[in-house]
Write a structure and sequence with these properties.
The complex is a heterodimer of chains A (about 725) and B (about 400).
Chain A lengths: L6 E5 L4 E6 L11 H16 L5 E6 L28 H22 L5 E5 L3 E2 L1 H7 L3 E5 L6 E2 L13 H9 L1 H10 L2 E2 L1 H7 L4 E3 L4 H11 L25 H18 L4 H13 L4 H17 L1 H18 L15 E5 L3 H12 L3 E5 L3 H16 L4 H9 L1 E4 L10 E4 L5 H15 L4 E4 L6 H5 L8 E5 L9 E6 L5 H13 L3 E6 L6 H17 L4 H10 L6 H8 L1 H15 L7 H11 L12 E3 L6 E3 L3 H4 L11 H21 L6 H12 L8 H8 L1 H15 L7 H8 L4 H10 L1
Chain B lengths: L4 E7 L3 E2 L11 H16 L6 E7 L11 H8 L7 E5 L5 H15 L4 E9 L11 H4 L1 H7 L4 H11 L4 H20 L10 E2 L5 E3 L11 H5 L6 H5 L4 H8 L19 E10 L1 H7 L5 E10 L8 H13 L8 E4 L4 H11 L12 H4 L6 H16 L3 E8 L3 E9 L1
Parallel strand pairs in B: 3-4, 3-5, 10-11
Antiparallel strand pairs in B: 1-8, 1-9, 2-8, 5-8, 6-7, 9-12, 11-12
The chains are: A alpha/beta (about 725), B alpha+beta (about 400).
Keywords (chain B): Acyltransferase, Transferase
InterPro entries (chain B): Thiolase, Thiolase_C, Thiolase_CS, Thiolase_N
Organism (chain B): Pacificimonas pallii
């Protein structure tokens, strides 16, 4: 037997087989069905062929050793399935599939011959798990090589022995830290933890691995299969107080960090708790059972689809118009050096672009540039910051914009100022350079009127703080052309952020739906509901912060101004709500939000502490005899109010794909990431259920919950957002 | 049904549950055996007539493991026909053991039985027996486990008791316990503990701090703030169940929570006929017994519910009870109980409680039942209810009536 499709086989004079994993046509090795088939065959040969004394496993990819399982190729149950906990009939099937992988790696580590792994680059998820099933690991000496089990980040858990072998190598407590947080380690860290045995220069790892195999003919027994095995950090036994304490504290911390909403970390905790107390063969079965239970629940599939598949696709240009050559930005004209402009300048300069940073005064422009030195200076050495700073050119002169091939405007949110700015820019560089506006609320179609070629005008909506927030919302105005979209998406790819593409409307997608969460929270307050209950309801259902805290952060005053502007724009069509009364009352009380130290919360001076303003209940008393609603009722309103607004955005054509809707919600305003986003969530709940709840809420609380006709039609036909999208793509 | 009568009740003094505590050198089985010996010697009962000994013990491992009740029966040289069984209802174990012993008498299983309990907290630390409830992540997550101290602070927050309220209660507990000791109210029931050469090592409750005042308590830091607000962050766990609260007010500390101590107690129960056989006057009859479960995260509000249930079983009203005894696990537990049932502090824990004298987990239930019986007799009153808050949201109560 020689090489297989995915693994090349080479037996040397010492009888050591070199197995080089090299998936054809892929830039990175991943565990797929073919690799499993090939590996099983080679493990069989390794065990039975007396000519083979041992083996070294390595990778033929320069990109690294191996990433995890092929998530795109995995068929999980999420998205479109109706919800309601794990599906039992599916669990046994998943168990069989995932246990086959565990069994294969167990066969490898018990084949009786020494097997070493030469890790030439990143080994993540299933990649690291293959390495952990070898008896000896040599990793290339490069600090940027990432070793880890990040499955939890996309709603999964390690399923190829990671929850069992990592604790047996590094001890239960440290292993849990890495498993639950999905944190990577460097080669040196891994060496310190005993996760790898040797760190060597990249060109020597195979030789070192072979040398170990040659020197250790009896090395084919894992530590945990030896009688003398002792768990690092103390026995894995519920009778060991240290072990018990790790899980008591670990579970509480996980409840705190996830509000109990994420299945993955709890499956990991249980797999480690139960599995480490068992012999390896049984332990691996336990892991596979928890894995099966985890992925049978729609949560895992929803998280993988949005947080991994859709995210990567968006970043690789899923929404980029076809047939347009790459339009990389070389020199960016950044108009406005305030907090947003300064942040955009920083991430652009870091990505290698030259940035002309323009503001009304030189002082303001310089201050914008200083933002970069302040932020980066804290984390990077001066010689690395300097070239980035050198690319930022502060100015007050529009003439300096000459040569820019992309413009982003982030001046004051005022139509007149924006129009004037647009005209001044066009006067210098002409109408052919794509012009992006970082407005968060003003409709793009209207702003584009100031430009003589509105097809070159587009919305590029960033989130604050720019350097931390991963999303950019691209807004297509009525007349925006495909080249503008391509240009904006290529720019977003350069700064390594995740784009969504939406159509024009007041507040676009993210600002509009994000505001809804705040508005419903404020409405509840206006009804006299206990503010602590409102805040906890939001946090516990999986929003990053409570609605009132959000309002304080963005400032109540800003909300008030937007409200006044909207009233003015809409005239008689504007419907005043309970939230408006609350905002007006807060303004009357001089409570403008965090920036003046008092809003819905009182803020400790200089400190981070805050407590709800004790006057809130008096200012917004419960109606006579009214008792607080159950937390579930509050959560239902906070959640379904967002869902219905998202559905409306879809009906109105603001959104054209559910993927944009889900990514925008999760990365734009932190919508319950474990659901995979509002559209995944509606699909999982079942649209018929969503409509039923909304009809009830509309009756109890008003028109803002009214079901969009499109949603009602979809529910009646038994359709789903993702199901329809897939049909549309197939057509 | 047969009536169950109390013929005697004794307890050891409570030693500080630390290596420098007077009872640290005494093994737990000795503590239990000396209680059994005292019951036998004070009543002159032929132990062959005692069918069973039921002892509560909350950490029944190591030298408290292996059925410490039967072990103590052997050590105390009871008739070898006397059986022994150890039970665990966490903090109410001693009262549960008494209720079970009474039930054995009532059902006709036993003519005489002893209920009681033992805990040497200095020798077998709390938590030594582990618990799937806390340790197994699946169980822990399912029930939103939090340690009792955090639950007690949750009670204080939810029902509006301040640090001063809790401290004032603690000061009063110390004052009452000191007065009761001074006036000798406990002397009829406290059996000094002796060592291997027969010398008395302890004859009084060692944990008390009679001089305690608001000022001395004021200097103590809250005990559960660290695990609540920082690592691992139990406040966020309990707020998941109590989202109406903004944050937890951590009011409890060593001075307004029950003390960690060593001790044992026992109550001799029997039929009317058995009393007549030995010429023993029944001191009280068991009027009603009850146990309940309630929400496990707040955990310690069970006394309200178990009291209502026991009163209901007895066909009684809150006002029909002359004296209440509720274990002072934490100040907020008692404050909430008085608030919920509208019970005057003048009728409750009249001689102090576990904040002053300590809470030897497995034994306390039997101790407070004996204490309240002594008080009924001293004051010539008729009915009493003893109860305890219990881990995981339970509660256990007993109503007795003098005859």
């Amino acid at each position: 037997m020689t090489s297989t499709e995915t693994i090349t086989y080479d037996l040397d004079a010492d009888g050591i087989a070199l197995l080089t994993i090299d998936l054809p046509g892929q830039s990175m090795n991943v565990i797929n069905q073919q690799l499993q088939t090939d590996m099983s065959a080679l493990i069989g040969k390794l065990a039975s062929d007396d000519a083979i004394k041992g083996a070294v496993i390595t990778s033929g990819k320069a990109s690294g050793f191996m990433a995890g399982a092929d998530l795109k190729g995995m068929n999980f149950s999420g998205g479109g399935d109706s919800g309601g906990g794990p599906d039992k009939s599916k669990m046994a099937t998943i168990f069989d599939a995932v246990f086959a992988l565990n069994k294969m790696l167990r066969d490898l580590e018990t084949c009786g011959k020494p097997v070493a792994c030469a890790i030439n680059g990143l080994a993540l998820g299933g990649g690291l798990e293959v390495a952990l099933a070898c008896h000896y690991r040599v990793v290339a000496d490069h600090p940027k090589i990432a070793l880890g089990l990040p499955e939890v980040m996309v709603g999964l858990m390690p399923g190829a022995g990671g929850t069992q072998r990592l604790p047996r190598l590094m001890g239960v407590q440290p292993a849990l830290m890495y498993l639950i947080q999905g944190k990577n380690m460097s080669p040196q860290e891994a060496l310190g933890f005993g996760v790898v045995h040797e760190v060597a220069p990249a060109d020597q790892i195979v030789a070192k691995a072979k040398a170990w195999v040659k020197a250790n003919p009896a090395g084919g027994v894992q530590p945990w299969d030896q009688k003398k095995f002792k768990f690092p950090g103390g026995p894995a036994s519920a009778m060991n107080p240290g072990f018990a304490q790790t899980f008591i504290g670990g579970t509480a911390m996980t409840i705190k960090q996830t509000s109990g909403n994420m299945n993955g970390p709890f499956a990991i905790l249980s797999s480690v708790y139960e599995g480490t107390q068992l012999p390896m063969d049984t332990a691996l079965r336990i892991e596979s059972k928890y894995f099966a239970k985890l992925v049978a629940d729609p949560q895992a599939g929803n998280m993988i689809r949005s947080l991994f598949v859709s995210k990567q696709a968006a970043e690789k240009g899923a929404r980029r118009p076809e047939g347009i050559a790459p339009m990389k930005t070389q020199k960016l004209g950044m108009l406005g050096a305030g907090m947003m402009g300064a942040g955009i300048a920083m991430v652009s300069a870091r990505a290698g672009m030259d940035v002309v940073l323009l503001d009304r005064t030189m002082e303001a422009a310089e201050k914008g540039k200083n933002y970069t030195s302040d932020k980066l200076g804290k984390r990077m050495s001066a010689d690395k910051v300097q070239p980035i700073l050198d690319r930022i050119h502060p100015t007050t002169d529009f003439a300096d914009l000459a040569g820019c091939d992309f413009i982003i405007e982030a001046v004051f949110e005022d139509r007149d100022i924006k129009r004037e700015t647009t005209e001044k820019v066009e006067a210098v560089i002409g109408a052919d350079v794509i012009f992006g506006s970082n407005t968060s609320t003003l409709p793009i179609t209207g702003l584009a009127k100031a430009h003589s070629k509105p097809e070159n005008f587009i919305g590029v909506h960033f989130f604050s703080p720019v350097e931390k927030m991963p999303l950019v919302e691209i807004i297509v105005g009525e007349k925006t052309g495909p080249e503008a979209i391509a240009k904006a998406l290529d720019y977003v790819a350069q700064i390594r952020k995740t784009p969504i593409v939406v159509n024009d409307s007041r507040g676009f997608y993210t600002s509009r739906c994000f505001g809804i969460y705040v508005q419903e929270g404020t409405t509840l307050l206006g009804e006299g509901v206990n503010p602590a209950l409102i805040e906890n309801a939001g946090k516990h259902m999986g929003m990053p912060v409570g609605p009132l805290a959000v309002s304080d952060e963005v400032s109540i005053e800003l909300g008030y101004k937007v409200m006044q502007q909207t009233k003015k724009d809409m005239g008689d069509a504007y419907k005043s709500g309970a939230a408006d009364t609350v905002v007006e009352k807060m303004m009357d009380e001089g409570r403008h939000g965090r920036k003046n130290g008092k809003g819905y919360y009182d803020y400790e001076e200089g400190g981070r502490g805050k407590v709800l303003w004790p006057g809130l209940r008096e200012a917004f008393p419960a109606k006579d005899g009214a008792v607080d609603p159950q937390v579930e009722e509050v959560q239902e309103r906070l959640k379904f109010r967002q869902l219905v607004e998202c559905a409306r955005c879809f009906e109105e054509g603001v959104l054209t794909t559910p993927e944009d809707g889900d990514l925008g919600a999760i990365f734009g305003w932190g919508f319950m990431p474990f659901t995979g986003g509002p559209f995944s969530h509606m699909d999982t709940l079942g649209l018929e259920h969503v409509v039923r709840v909304l009809d009830r809420l509309a009756q109890e609380h008003g028109e803002r919950f009214a079901v969009p006709q499109m949603l009602r039609d979809m529910a009646e036909k038994g359709e789903s957002f993702y199901g329809n999208a897939a049909r549309k793509r197939a057509a | 049904m047969t009536e169950a009568y109390i013929y005697d009740a004794v307890r050891t003094p409570r030693g500080k549950g630390k290596p420098n505590g007077a009872l640290h050198e005494i093994t737990p089985v000795q503590l239990a055996a000396q209680v059994l010996e005292a019951l036998r010697d004070r009543t002159n009962v032929d132990t062959a007539d005692i069918d069973d000994v039921v002892l509560g013990c909350v950490s029944p491992v190591g030298e408290q493991g292996g059925d410490i009740a039967r072990t103590a029966v052997m050590v105390a040289d009871y008739a070898q026909t006397t059986a022994g069984v150890q039970v665990n209802r966490f903090c109410a174990s001693g009262l549960e053991a008494t209720n079970m012993a009474a039930a054995k008498v009532m059902s006709g299983e036993a003519m005489m039985a002893i209920g009681g309990g033992v805990e040497s907290m200095s020798r077998v630390p709390m938590g030594s027996d582990g618990a799937a409830w806390a340790t197994d992540p699946a169980v822990n997550f399912h029930s939103y486990f939090a340690p009792q101290g955090v639950s007690a602070d949750l009670i204080a927050t939810k029902y509006g008791f301040s640090r001063d309220d809790a401290d004032a209660y603690a000061v009063e507990s110390q004052k009452r316990a000191a007065a009761a000791w001074e006036k000798g109210y406990f002397k009829g029931s406290v059996v000094p503990v002796k060592d291997v050469i027969g010398e008395v090592v302890l004859d009084h409750d060692e944990h008390m701090r009679p001089g305690t005042d608001m000022q001395s308590l004021g200097g103590l830091n809250p005990s559960f703030e660290g695990i609540g607000t920082q690592m691992p962050g139990y406040d966020d766990v309990v707020l998941q169940k109590y989202p109406e609260l903004e944050k937890i007010n951590h009011v409890h500390h060593g001075g307004n929570s029950s003390g960690i101590v060593d001790g044992a107690a026992g109550i001799l129960l029997g039929t009317k006929e058995m009393g007549e056989k030995y010429g023993l006057k029944p001191r009280a009859r068991i009027r009603a017994m009850a146990s309940i479960g309630s929400e496990p995260t707040i955990m310690l509000t069970g006394p309200e519910f178990v009291t209502r249930k026991a009163l209901d079983r007895a066909g009684m009203d809150v006002n029909d009870i002359d004296i209440y005894e509720l274990n002072e696990a934490f100040a907020s537990v008692v404050l909430r109980y008085m608030q919920a049932l509208n019970i005057d502090h003048g009728k409750l824990n009249v001689n102090g409680g576990a904040i002053a004298m300590g809470h030897p987990l497995g034994a306390t239930g039997a101790m407070i039942l004996g204490t309240v019986l002594d008080e009924l007799e001293r004051t010539g009153k008729g009915t009493a209810l003893a109860n305890l808050c219990v881990g995981a949201g339970m509660g256990t109560a007993t109503i007795i009536e003098r005859v």
